[in-house]
Design a protein that fits this description.
With 302 residues, the chain is an alpha/beta fold. It is 23% helix and 25% strand. Helix 4 packs parallel to helix 5.
Length: 302
């Protein structure tokens, strides 16, 4: 039987501060202008509000990870606009920006406008980034001209070779098409095909989590024994209260995810874009005072 802790007892928190923070955006769907998507959703405004809120929070992410569908139609003006919106914020935060292909993106234009490649080709855009000992592998799951995803044999061989050597803090795999089912029935028309081939590569590797997007609603699951986090879109989302078998999109509930990397776990937190009426407010200084008054000491990174 447990007993209440005395008021003057001192205890240390169970977890130290995280090793690092990633911010996971998906499905921005920017266009070449500020026009509303389908005359309803303000994709540009939603992204700008998300970035402003992130910056105002004082968070210091190591990287901003965008898992595909950067541009709604692959237009070069859209890529320039998102670069102009994200670049200055990332610079002020001291964060890398990792761009991934989605089925709405155009490989050649993506390479030229976001990666700065002057003679872009049409091969899959697979990349490896290392951030403070954490390896982030971005895998291009797109099939040009189609909404479903597939990972080619050469890509799988490349991924297997990359994962043959573990990274100091392990690996995060980022991709557009999630290796999970979706409760939206129409999603089967644009799912990732032949997922078992990817599972064969990932089993036993140092991949700690998989980040994905594409389906415009938040989901969590596991694949090949690895936690999967699917970020909702920042542009528009799926209404999951639609009658079973149907589909309805809406200009509501947009968001992004905070991905806090700890030594022994990775924490995914959904951040809605926008705020409702305020109910309570505690400043950081007041929070620290309250913890100290309760004899709670925050563990810090070694």
């Amino acid at each position: 039987m447990s007993h209440p802790q005395p008021a003057d007892a001192v205890r240390t928190t169970e977890y130290p501060d995280p090793d690092l923070l990633l911010v996971h955006f998906s499905d921005v769907h920017l266009t070449s202008t500020d026009d509303l998507l389908q005359d309803v959703a303000d994709a540009t405004g939603h992204l700008e509000r998300a970035l402003a809120g992130l910056e105002a929070s004082g968070a210091r992410p190591a990287a901003l990870v965008f898992t595909g569908d950067i541009a709604d139609t692959g237009d070069h003006h859209a890529y320039r606009r998102i670069r102009a919106a994200v670049g200055p914020v990332a610079h002020r935060l001291g964060a890398k920006v990792l761009w991934l292909m989605g089925n709405h993106d155009d490989r050649a234009t993506f390479r030229r406008e976001l990666l700065g490649q002057q003679n872009p080709d049409l091969s899959p855009i697979d990349q490896v980034h290392t951030v403070d000992g954490l390896r982030i592998i971005s895998l291009d799951t797109t099939v040009p001209g189609h909404h479903h995803g597939r990972i080619g044999e050469q890509q799988l061989n490349w991924l297997r070779q990359e994962l043959a050597t573990p990274a100091p803090r392990g690996t995060v795999l980022a991709m557009h098409h999630p290796p999970l089912p979706s409760i939206v029935e129409q999603a089967v028309t644009c799912e990732l095909i032949d997922q078992h081939e990817l599972a064969d590569v990932l089993r036993g590797s140092d991949v700690r989590t998989i980040l994905a997007g594409h389906i415009h609603h938040t989901s969590f699951g596991s694949f090949a024994g690895i936690p999967v986090s699917v970020a909702t879109a920042s542009s528009y989302t799926q209404d999951l209260t639609m009658a079973q078998g149907g589909m309805r999109t809406e200009d509501a509930n947009q968001g992004y995810n905070l991905v806090h990397v700890y030594e022994n776990t990775i924490l995914h937190s959904v951040v809605p874009i926008g705020h409702g009426p305020q109910m309570d407010f505690v400043t950081p200084d007041e929070s620290a005072r309250r913890l100290a008054a309760q004899g709670i000491i925050r563990r810090r990174r070694a």
